[in-house]
Amino acid sequence: MSGIQNEAFDHEGNGLQLTHRKSGTIVNTENGDSADTASLPSNSKRTVYDKLGDLVDKYKAQIRIAWLVTLNALVIIFFGFATNHYLEKEETCSTGCGMQWCSGYGMLVLLLGFVYLGLVYFHIVKPLLRKPFKSNVVKPLSRTLGNFFSSLWAKLGACGVILVAFAIFCFIETKDEPERLMSLVGMATLFILAFICSKHPTRINYRPVVLGVTFQFLLGLFCIRWEVGRSIFECIGDKVATFLNYSADGASFVYGDFIVRQEGVFAFAVLSVIYFFSFFISILYYLGAMQWVVLKLGWILQALLGTTVCESVIAAANIFSG
């Protein structure tokens, strides 16, 4: 035996069968050798912590239900007080009245709405309706679209419609300011160079290219031309900036305001933001939250662009991990 005990395994690395005695001593059943280790606590020496752990394991389901009921009750009580405070404030409000969705009571409503809608979807709607919806709607629709776009002419027609609509929009938008087309010329130049430098240009899959540019264009319209979309992304940007500014507060606490806020030394001001965001992402990875977000984004990219699972997940992960 190596003399090293790993209680997580019943076999040692050399293949010898190991068993546990009640005393906690490891015994080699082939040659009878034994090694004294930290013995397991007997019934008479069990601590309060051990007994509490057994009690929690015994009533695990009941404790979980009680915790969820208590948590939701506290959320409802807090939301009730927040609603009462908001209504009282609105009665005496003279300027800046109305619901502010990016802060205060409006943000609270949005957060609780997203959380509870997500819980209803993942715990009620998805388990009950996922299979019927997938078999009766998704599969027939994907089969119909796949059969339709299996023809080369259908693909060319769809690309032609997209290009014509894009050209009409660009003409209407830039007829008085043609210099705005400079960025479009640059993007077209990159595509042409990529096509020329490709080793197998006939094997290029144009679905990710066309749909990727199309969705970027639609996202730009949503963020710039639609006031609601612009407000949403401005709010998200403000919240992210506020969150990252917490790193400046921490750096100022450690290094002082002079080199962080006044002088803005790179090693103390900029790197602190990078470290702070990296630590935050690492914590989310440890908790499993970032894996869930990356997989969902990867699934969306795979469904829209037709890319492989690995490509989609890696592209989604690069958004957060760089």
TrEMBL record:
Any idea where the Concentrative nucleoside transporter N-terminal domain is?
185-257
Fetch the Pfam families from UniProt.
Gate, Nucleos_tra2_N
Q: What is the lineage of its organism?
A: Eukaryota, Metazoa, Ecdysozoa, Arthropoda, Hexapoda
Tell me the InterPro entries matching this sequence.
C_nuclsd_transpt, CNT_N_dom, Gate_dom
Protein name as it appears in the record: Concentrative nucleoside transporter N-terminal domain-containing protein
* Membrane spanning residue stretches: 65-83, 103-124, 145-169, 181-197, 265-287, 299-320
Listed A to Z, the keywords are: Membrane, Transmembrane, Transmembrane helix
Per its UniProt entry, which superkingdom is the organism in?
Eukaryota
Task: Using the record's annotation, list all stretches that form the Nucleoside transporter/FeoB GTPase Gate domain.
Answer: 268-322
